[in-house]
Specification:
- By secondary structure, the chain is mainly α.
- It has helices spanning about 15-40, 45-75, 85-115, 135-170; strands at about 120, 125.
- The chain contains 4 helices and 2 strands; from the N terminus they run H-H-H-E-E-H.
- A two-stranded antiparallel sheet has the order 1-2.
- Strand 1 and strand 2 (about 125) form a beta hairpin.
- Helix 2 packs across helix 3.
- The longest helix is centred in the C-terminal third of the chain and has 36 residues, at about 135-170.
- It is elongated.
Length: about 190
């Protein structure tokens, strides 16, 4: 790091950091469960995982909405002045893509589930309205869009992680540290 004290880093707020890491964890786990559950034969375990995946998707959708509201009312830390223009643009484009996909993935899954005739009851307690009417043809049309959105999100997340690691280990700047909670140690 360029002789910058860890305490002097222009960081995201504590709530922004919490949103980031909670959503990162939930999205990665949900993606892994989604891959695994589709490989299973019809069984109680598969049904349980599908329900869990739907619950996670709705939770991710709600947290994404809260995160977006927070982000719209709170400025992000300023990017380093020495960052090349193309990297600034790439940062804005990739963050925009992440936000779009945070909504596209669960909404296409919810619409697919509705069209397939499988209502979502969040956590087994709260029945959610169908986004579309039951329609098998529509379900078949929507299914690949959920997959495309999910895989697109996975690709953008990998690029996001690679960029953060590049900034930390190669550029040796504070980009990654802005999203790490400050250490209590001096």
């Amino acid at each position: 790091m360029n002789s910058i004290s860890r305490q002097n880093i222009n960081r995201y707020s504590g709530l922004a950091i919490a949103f980031h890491w909670l959503l990162a964890l939930m999205i990665c786990i949900s993606f892994g469960v989604g891959l695994y559950m589709t490989s299973l034969t019809f069984s109680p375990q598969r049904l349980k995982l599908y329900n869990w995946h739907k619950w996670a998707g709705i939770t991710i959708l709600a947290l994404s909405a809260a995160r977006l509201l927070w982000r719209l009312t709170h400025r992000a830390p300023v990017l380093p002045s020495n960052m090349p223009v193309w990297q600034r643009m790439a940062s804005h484009v990739s963050h925009g893509a992440l936000y779009i996909l945070f909504f596209a993935v669960p909404l296409t899954g919810w619409a697919y589930s509705s069209a397939a005739g499988f209502p979502i009851v969040w956590l087994g307690l709260v029945p959610l309205p169908d986004l579309v009417e039951k329609n098998r043809d529509l379900a078949e049309l929507l299914k690949p869009y959920h997959w495309i959105a999910a895989y697109s999100l996975a690709v953008v997340v990998v690029i996001h992680i690679a960029a953060a690691l590049k900034h930390h280990f190669i550029d040796r700047d504070t980009i990654l540290l802005r999203m790490i909670p400050p250490s209590k140690r001096a």
